[in-house]
Amino acid sequence: MDQGLYTAKATAQGGRDGRVSSKDGKLDLKLSMPKELQGSGGEGTNPEQLFACGYAACYQSALQIVAGKQKVDVSDSKVTANVTIGKDSSNGGLKLAVVLEVSIPGQDQENVQKLADEAHQVCPYSKATRGNIDVEIKAVQ
Question: How far apart are CA 84 and CA 102, in angstroms?
């Protein structure tokens, strides 16, 4: 990295059944293990939901940048990040996979896919995950 522009700081206590909070106090969330992972399924969020929110928001911004350079209006676009945690047969642990669904009203599927693929090249989350987890980009209507 040439120059750091912003650093987010968050602290976790108690693992997947604990809490997470940001240093600035804007986030203070209870965590609950999903039932699908043999947890309580309580009212708290989980790391996969938090990652999905962050990835979707970051990717949406990348889409806006790419589309803006091409003078394409994406103000009504939506990005949905589906983050899955599952078994990793290579080492017996767990791993993540992501499917990003991109919708841009008024654009045909081919153009949406083109813009979505371009956004994937500039999004910092996409750069961070590239080669580490499976990420699929899907244009949806």
Answer: 17
φ and ψ at residue 135, rounded to 5 degrees: -130, 125
Residue 45 in contact with residue 32, Cβ under 8 Å? yes
Sorting pLDDT into bands at 50, 70 and 90, what band is 21?
Answer: very high
Q: Residue 87, by phi and psi: left (phi above 0), alpha (psi -120 to 50) or beta?
A: beta
CA dist 111 and 83 (Å) reads 24
> Which of 140, 54, 56 has its CA nearest to residue 102?
140
Cβ burial 59-95 (10 Å sphere, 16+ → b, else e): bbbbbeebbeeeebebeebebebebebeeeeeeeeee
pLDDT at 141: 80
Q: Which pTM value belongs to this model?
A: 0.94
Q: Is the pLDDT of residue 116 over 90?
A: yes
